[in-house]
Amino acid sequence: MKPAFLQTSRTESFNMWRFRQLMNWYPMYFGTGGKILFWSGDSREVHLRLRRNVWTYNYVGTIFGGSMFAAADPFYMLMLLRILGKQYVVWDKTGSIRFRKPGRQTLYARFEITDEQLDTIRQAVAENGQTEQTFTLDWVDADGVVHAQIERLCYIADKQHYEQRKNDRQQSRFHR
User: Fold this and answer.
1) Does the keyword Transmembrane apply (predicted)?
2) Distance in angstroms (rounded) separating the CA atoms of residues 10 and 83
Protein backbone atom coordinates (compact mmCIF):
# COMPACT_ATOMS: atom_id res chain seq x y z
CA MET A 1 0.00 0.00 0.00
CA LYS A 2 1.26 3.47 -0.91
CA PRO A 3 1.76 6.09 1.80
CA ALA A 4 -0.73 8.96 1.85
CA PHE A 5 1.86 11.46 0.53
CA LEU A 6 1.93 9.56 -2.78
CA GLN A 7 -1.78 10.18 -3.42
CA THR A 8 -2.36 12.21 -6.56
CA SER A 9 -5.13 13.63 -8.69
CA ARG A 10 -3.26 12.67 -11.86
CA THR A 11 -4.03 9.46 -13.71
CA GLU A 12 -1.85 6.93 -15.46
CA SER A 13 -2.64 6.31 -19.13
CA PHE A 14 -2.39 2.84 -20.65
CA ASN A 15 0.71 3.91 -22.62
CA MET A 16 2.43 5.15 -19.48
CA TRP A 17 1.38 2.02 -17.56
CA ARG A 18 2.98 -0.08 -20.31
CA PHE A 19 6.11 2.13 -20.34
CA ARG A 20 6.34 1.81 -16.53
CA GLN A 21 6.09 -1.98 -16.75
CA LEU A 22 8.86 -2.09 -19.34
CA MET A 23 11.06 0.25 -17.30
CA ASN A 24 10.60 -1.89 -14.18
CA TRP A 25 11.89 -4.94 -16.10
CA TYR A 26 14.64 -3.10 -17.99
CA PRO A 27 17.79 -4.82 -16.63
CA MET A 28 19.70 -1.61 -15.93
CA TYR A 29 16.83 -0.26 -13.83
CA PHE A 30 15.72 -3.56 -12.33
CA GLY A 31 19.25 -3.99 -10.94
CA THR A 32 18.93 -0.83 -8.83
CA GLY A 33 16.26 -2.44 -6.64
CA GLY A 34 13.87 0.44 -7.34
CA LYS A 35 10.31 0.02 -8.55
CA ILE A 36 8.22 2.56 -10.41
CA LEU A 37 4.80 2.60 -8.77
CA PHE A 38 3.13 5.31 -10.87
CA TRP A 39 3.85 7.39 -13.99
CA SER A 40 1.22 9.98 -14.82
CA GLY A 41 -0.19 10.11 -18.33
CA ASP A 42 1.21 13.62 -18.79
CA SER A 43 4.66 12.51 -17.46
CA ARG A 44 4.65 15.26 -14.84
CA GLU A 45 4.65 12.94 -11.85
CA VAL A 46 6.43 9.67 -11.06
CA HIS A 47 6.47 7.66 -7.81
CA LEU A 48 9.17 5.16 -6.82
CA ARG A 49 9.68 2.61 -4.08
CA LEU A 50 12.98 1.20 -2.83
CA ARG A 51 12.89 -1.71 -0.42
CA ARG A 52 15.75 -2.96 1.71
CA ASN A 53 16.43 -6.46 0.43
CA VAL A 54 19.22 -8.77 -0.66
CA TRP A 55 19.88 -6.53 -3.71
CA THR A 56 19.91 -3.20 -1.90
CA TYR A 57 21.37 -3.56 1.58
CA ASN A 58 24.95 -2.71 2.44
CA TYR A 59 27.53 -4.00 4.91
CA VAL A 60 25.85 -2.33 7.90
CA GLY A 61 22.35 -3.52 6.97
CA THR A 62 20.91 -0.27 5.60
CA ILE A 63 19.87 0.59 2.05
CA PHE A 64 22.96 1.08 -0.09
CA GLY A 65 23.40 4.71 -1.11
CA GLY A 66 24.26 3.62 -4.63
CA SER A 67 20.84 1.96 -4.89
CA MET A 68 19.15 5.19 -3.79
CA PHE A 69 21.11 7.22 -6.32
CA ALA A 70 20.77 4.75 -9.20
CA ALA A 71 17.05 4.10 -8.65
CA ALA A 72 16.41 7.85 -8.95
CA ASP A 73 18.75 8.37 -11.90
CA PRO A 74 16.89 8.70 -15.21
CA PHE A 75 13.55 10.16 -14.26
CA TYR A 76 13.81 13.93 -14.62
CA MET A 77 15.51 13.50 -17.98
CA LEU A 78 12.89 11.02 -19.20
CA MET A 79 10.01 13.12 -17.89
CA LEU A 80 11.33 16.24 -19.62
CA LEU A 81 11.89 14.38 -22.90
CA ARG A 82 8.31 13.12 -22.85
CA ILE A 83 6.82 16.50 -21.82
CA LEU A 84 8.84 18.81 -24.07
CA GLY A 85 8.83 16.63 -27.18
CA LYS A 86 11.19 15.94 -30.04
CA GLN A 87 12.12 19.57 -30.69
CA TYR A 88 14.18 19.55 -27.45
CA VAL A 89 17.35 17.76 -26.36
CA VAL A 90 17.63 16.79 -22.69
CA TRP A 91 20.65 15.34 -20.91
CA ASP A 92 21.41 14.57 -17.29
CA LYS A 93 24.47 16.66 -16.50
CA THR A 94 25.30 16.10 -12.83
CA GLY A 95 23.84 14.57 -9.74
CA SER A 96 24.60 14.51 -6.05
CA ILE A 97 23.19 12.79 -3.01
CA ARG A 98 23.16 13.84 0.61
CA PHE A 99 22.38 11.20 3.19
CA ARG A 100 20.24 12.34 6.11
CA LYS A 101 19.36 9.13 7.93
CA PRO A 102 20.13 5.43 7.34
CA GLY A 103 17.40 3.66 5.38
CA ARG A 104 16.34 0.59 7.31
CA GLN A 105 12.84 0.36 5.85
CA THR A 106 11.11 0.89 2.51
CA LEU A 107 11.73 4.33 1.01
CA TYR A 108 9.68 6.32 -1.47
CA ALA A 109 10.41 9.14 -3.91
CA ARG A 110 8.03 11.45 -5.72
CA PHE A 111 9.17 13.28 -8.86
CA GLU A 112 7.08 16.20 -10.01
CA ILE A 113 7.58 18.82 -12.70
CA THR A 114 5.41 21.90 -12.26
CA ASP A 115 3.92 24.31 -14.80
CA GLU A 116 6.20 27.03 -13.38
CA GLN A 117 9.31 24.91 -13.97
CA LEU A 118 8.21 24.15 -17.53
CA ASP A 119 7.48 27.83 -18.23
CA THR A 120 10.92 28.80 -16.90
CA ILE A 121 12.61 26.13 -19.04
CA ARG A 122 10.73 27.03 -22.21
CA GLN A 123 11.38 30.75 -21.74
CA ALA A 124 15.12 30.24 -21.09
CA VAL A 125 15.46 27.96 -24.12
CA ALA A 126 13.54 30.44 -26.30
CA GLU A 127 15.89 33.25 -25.19
CA ASN A 128 19.23 31.39 -25.09
CA GLY A 129 18.76 28.19 -27.09
CA GLN A 130 19.60 26.17 -23.97
CA THR A 131 19.35 26.13 -20.20
CA GLU A 132 20.15 24.06 -17.14
CA GLN A 133 17.59 23.20 -14.48
CA THR A 134 18.23 21.73 -11.04
CA PHE A 135 15.67 19.34 -9.57
CA THR A 136 15.60 18.03 -6.02
CA LEU A 137 13.88 14.97 -4.65
CA ASP A 138 13.79 13.19 -1.31
CA TRP A 139 13.86 9.51 -0.42
CA VAL A 140 11.42 9.30 2.47
CA ASP A 141 9.96 6.53 4.63
CA ALA A 142 6.24 5.85 5.08
CA ASP A 143 6.09 8.53 7.79
CA GLY A 144 7.60 11.17 5.47
CA VAL A 145 11.01 11.25 7.23
CA VAL A 146 13.76 12.22 4.76
CA HIS A 147 16.57 9.66 4.49
CA ALA A 148 18.40 11.09 1.47
CA GLN A 149 18.14 14.12 -0.78
CA ILE A 150 19.19 13.99 -4.42
CA GLU A 151 19.89 16.91 -6.74
CA ARG A 152 19.90 16.41 -10.50
CA LEU A 153 21.07 19.02 -13.01
CA CYS A 154 19.53 18.65 -16.46
CA TYR A 155 20.68 20.35 -19.65
CA ILE A 156 17.79 21.31 -21.94
CA ALA A 157 18.20 22.79 -25.42
CA ASP A 158 16.31 23.51 -28.59
CA LYS A 159 17.27 20.69 -30.97
CA GLN A 160 18.40 23.05 -33.75
CA HIS A 161 20.55 25.04 -31.31
CA TYR A 162 22.06 21.83 -29.94
CA GLU A 163 22.83 20.43 -33.40
CA GLN A 164 24.43 23.73 -34.47
CA ARG A 165 26.64 23.81 -31.37
CA LYS A 166 27.59 20.16 -31.91
CA ASN A 167 28.53 20.88 -35.54
CA ASP A 168 30.54 23.96 -34.50
CA ARG A 169 32.48 21.90 -31.93
CA GLN A 170 33.21 19.16 -34.45
CA GLN A 171 34.39 21.62 -37.09
CA SER A 172 36.65 23.41 -34.64
CA ARG A 173 38.33 20.11 -33.72
CA PHE A 174 39.24 19.45 -37.35
CA HIS A 175 40.18 22.99 -38.39
CA ARG A 176 42.96 23.86 -35.98
Assistant:
1) yes
2) 15
Contacts 24+ apart (CB under 8 A), 29-32: 29/71, 29/74, 31/55, 31/70, 32/67, 32/70, 32/71, 32/73
Per-residue confidence (pLDDT) for residue 1, from 0 to 100? 67
Note the pTM of the prediction, 2 decimals: 0.89
Amino acid making up residue 160 = Q
Is 4 within a domain? no
How many independent structural domains does the chain possess?
1
User: Beta-strand (E) ranges in 66-142?
Assistant: 88-99, 107-112, 130-140
Q: Residue 103: pLDDT above 80?
A: yes
CATH number for the domain including 63?
Answer: 3.10.129.10
Instruction: Give domain status of residue 3, yes or no.
Output: no
